[in-house]
Amino acid sequence: MSTDTTTKDSTEYTRALLTTAEPRRRRTDRIMAGLIWSAFALAMIPLVSLLWTVLFSGAGRMSVDFLQYSMRGIFGGDPSGGIYHAIMGTLIITGCATLISVPIGILVAIYLVEYGRGPLARAVTFFVDVMTGIPSIVAGLFAVSLFTIFFGPGARFGLIGAVALSVLMIPVVVRSCEEMLKLVPNELREASYALGVPKWLTIVRIVLRTSVAGLTTSVLLAVARVIGETAPLLVAVGVTDSINFDPSEGRMMTLPVFIYRQYSQGQAPCREDQVNCVADIALQNAWGAALTLIAIVMILNIAGRLVNRWFAPKTR
C-alpha cells in the first residue's frame, strides 16, 4: 500500500513539474508573445492604412459608366470619362506576358530540378537570381531596344510591354515553380521509374500533376507582382485615350500608367459658369483606377487560393 502511495505521489510531482512553468519562464513567454503581437500590429498598420485610403478615396468614383467608358474625347474637368480602355489594356498585356513567361519559367524550373547538373545549371541559377533584381525600367528599355531593331524607332504597342513584363515575370515563375517541384516526394518518382516509366513521362504524369496546385499559385502570384508595373509600360507601350484590343498594333493604356498620368495632371481649370466641370476629377480618376487595380490583384490572389484548395492532394 505504501509503495502504491509513493508511486502515485511521485507521478503527481513529476506531472506538476512538467505542467507548471517557473515564474521567470512565464514572464519571458508573455514578453515574447507581446513583442510578436506588437510586431504584427505594427506591420498591419501601413497595410490597413493603404487599403482604407484607397477605398475611401476611390469608392466615390466607382460606377458602371466609369468601368465601361474610355477617356476618348474627354478634356479638362469633364467627369464622364472612364477606365475601360485601361482595364482591357492591363488584362491583354498581362495575359500576353503570362503566355510568354509561364512556359519558359516552368520548363526552366523542370530543368533545374529534374535535369540540372554541372556548370550549366549553376549558370542558369545565377542568371535567374540576377534577373530577379533587375529594375523594371531596365526591362522596359530592353524590350524597346529589341523591337526597335525590327520595327524601327518609335514603335510602341502592347507586345513590347508584354515582353518587358515577361522579363520581370520569368525569374519569379522559375524560382517559385522550382520550390514547388522540389516538394514532390522522391518516392513518387522512384516508384514510377520502378514500373519502367520514362523520365519525361514521369515528370508529366507524376511530378506536374502532384504539384499543379503550387504551380498555379506561383503563376498567379507572379502575375499579381507585375500587373502593377508602371515604368516599363510607360516606356514600352506609351499612352492613349482610346480603346485598343490589338496588342500587335498601336499604343495601349494600362491601369498603372493611367493612374500616373491622371495624378500628374493635377487640378483642372474650371470657370464659375461651367456646370459640368470637376476640378479634382483627375485625382478622382486616379484613386478609382487604383481601387480597380487592387481589386484585380485581390481577385487573382483569391483565385490562387481556390485553385490551391481544389487541386491540393487529398490527405483522406
From TrEMBL:
Belongs to the binding-protein-dependent transport system permease family. CysTW subfamily. The chain crosses the membrane at residues 34-55, 83-112, 124-151, 157-174, 206-227, 286-307. It is found in: Cell membrane. The keyword Transmembrane helix applies. This is Phosphate transport system permease protein PstA. It holds the Pfam family BPD_transp_1. CDD domains: TM_PBP2. InterPro entries: MetI-like, MetI-like_sf, Phosphate_PstA, Phosphate_transprt_permease. Part of the binding-protein-dependent transport system for phosphate; probably responsible for the translocation of the substrate across the membrane. The gene is pstA_2. Residues 87-304 form the ABC transmembrane type-1 domain. Keywords: Cell membrane, Membrane, Phosphate transport, Transmembrane, Transmembrane helix, Transport. It is a multi-pass membrane protein.
